[in-house]
Amino acid sequence: QVQLVESGGGSVQPGGSTRLSCAASGFIFSISAMGWYRQAPGKEREPVAVIATVAGTNYADSVKGRFTISRDNGKKMVYLQMNSLKPEDTAVYYCNAVRDMATMTPIFAGSWGQGTQVTVSS
Predict the structure, then answer these.
(1) 5 close to 75: Cβ distance less than 8 angstroms
(2) Distance CA 104, CA 46 (A)
(3) Cα 13 from chain centroid?
(4) I need a labelling partner for 96 at 20 to 30 A (CA). Which of 65, 102, 107, 114 fits?
């Protein structure tokens, strides 16, 4: 059974930083591209960043240069370092395995975790 558990969100001031973590289980993590997605109130879920199994990343234009995705295959964890946060980054953030690095399409579209809330506000 696929399990995705996100953590690390919270309230941050504009310009601040935070780091999200995702613990994955129930699939072969080491051969799966992974990604972060977010859903703001009243909006559809959108891709934020993806990372390939060994190297290679892709980012949404809105976060390029500010967010960095990384992974630890031994721990089956994926991380999102978020810097220079803006109010428009406020959303619930989710992780998932990735089917396509270019389109950032998630694999387990029916198995999202509970997500972690990030609120950017002064």
Answers:
(1) no
(2) 9
(3) 20
(4) 65
Beta bridge partners of 57: 51
Length of the chain, in residues: 122
Q: Scan for tokens 């879920």, then name that residue.
A: 45
For residue 18, what is the enclosing H or E element? strand 18-25
- How many other C-beta atoms are found inside a 10 Å radius of the C-beta of residue 88? 10
What string of pLDDT tens digits covers the 122 residues of the chain?
999 999 998 999 999 999 999 999 999 998 999 999 999 999 999 999 999 997 799 999 999 999 999 999 999 999 999 999 999 999 999 999 999 999 999 999 888 999 999 999 99
Measured distance CA(49)–CA(71) in Å, rounded: 12
Q: Are 47 and 35 in contact (CB under 8 A)?
A: yes
